[in-house]
Amino acid sequence: MNKKISLGAAICFMGIVAAVTFVITMIFSMQKFNGKIGRVTERERIYSKIDEIDSLVAQHFVGDIDDDELMDAIAAGYLSGLDDNYAHYFSPADLKKEKLNSEGALVGIGVSATQDTSGYIKIQKVYDNSPASEAKLEAYDLIVKVEGEDVLTLGYNESISKVSGEAGTKVKITYRRDGVDTDLELVRKKVEIPTVSYRMIGKNGYIKIEDFTTNTIDQFSKAVDDCIAKGAEGLIFDLRNNGGGTLESVEKMLDKLLPSGVIVYKRDKSGKKEALYTSDAKQVDLPMVTITNGNTASASELFVSALKDYDKAQSVGTTTFGKGIMQTLYDLSDGSAIRITTAYFDPPKSENFHGVGIKADFPVTLTQEQEKNFNDLDETTDPQLKKAIEVVSAAE
């Protein structure tokens, strides 16, 4: 038998439902409102403190105040207050350099350099198609003067800064070779930095990846193709001292090597996980091995872990650095930018390596002397490279 409900009861019931809905909505609204009010109150406290400091400085500071420098310092200070070792503020000028770096380029005379024991600038490498290569500068030349000023007087960092500059501008340097000083005037320009070098070692292709930039993608692809064309039966990827770079570049490089599947996942602070990049079915079907050390970090670690996850390569060397988080660059309205950590990036199948690194399948360490002379080691004197050759050859 159907039970009939009176119109009055129905209206009463609807009223109760509406009231409960209103209460629940109000509770959530108040919580959200209170959260916003709390944030606004906190912001007011921050602004009030800065205003108080500014007022005191304006009244009592004996020096001059540069408002632009002050604004940059405030922005940088805000980020330094975060629990984020990778957060960074970029002024417009710094941002331009950062974007060049991510491309794999620089504006200058086209050399990589370090400080010599004498205090002067020692050229380590001269890049092709650069002002330095056109002027016949060589590795181990010493830059002793910049714009007529002695490097020892200027200081190393200031001298390096003076060598850099805008494309199309001129810089005068004095370099020393075999005790003889020579003056040069060079015109700065944009120079592509080679981040991949390769050669055949016996029947194996040896590919050293120094960074992951936009330009690295094509350099890497050419290196792999050339090694295969020369009859390589195995590939050795050297990622020692590679501190990482852009995820976009390593993803595309891995796509060349891996079969169809996920290359990397992005995981946000709530734990939500999504595939960031996937590989197509094309792959390189050769035995592979990676070489790592404690300075193998970030994108380099993804390269190593992804190859492991797909059973494409084992690793030789020492445990990697352990950086499995990604940063995002956000442009600001005045041409500056901030970079903050926004997510974890997880390998295709294995656990995230942040804070722990990736252990080598075949642990091999270098002596202090070998570490000191690392750039001079080769397949006859480098125990890690020797082991890598042994491992990849056994898999052929």
How many domains make up the coordinates?
Answer: 3
Task: Quickly count the helices.
Answer: 11
Remind me, CATH topology of the largest domain? 2-enoyl-CoA Hydratase, Chain A, domain 1
Main beta-sheet annotation: 6 strands, antiparallel
Based on CA atoms alone, the radius of gyration comes out at 29 Å
How would you describe this protein?
- This protein is an alpha+beta fold and 396 residues long.
- The protein folds into three domains: 13-57; 105-192, PDZ domain (Pdz3 Domain, Roll), CATH 2.30.42; 196-394, 2-enoyl-CoA Hydratase, Chain A, domain 1 (Alpha-Beta Complex), CATH 3.90.226.
- 38% of the residues lie in helices and 27% in strands.
- The chain is built from eleven helices and 19 strands.
- It has helices at 7-60, 67-80, 92-103, 131-134, 151-154, 156-163, 214-229, 247-257, 299-309, 368-372, 383-394, and strands at residues 88-90, 105-108, 111-115, 121-126, 142-146, 149-150, 170-177, 180-187, 189-192, 196-201, 204-209, 234-238, 261-267, 273-279, 288-292, 313-317, 325-331, 337-346, 362-363.
- The strands form four sheets. Strands 3, 4, 5, 6, 7 and 8 form a six-stranded antiparallel β-sheet that branches.
- The longest helix is centred in the first third of the chain and has 54 residues, at 7-60.
- The protein is globular.
- The N and C termini lie far apart (81 Å).
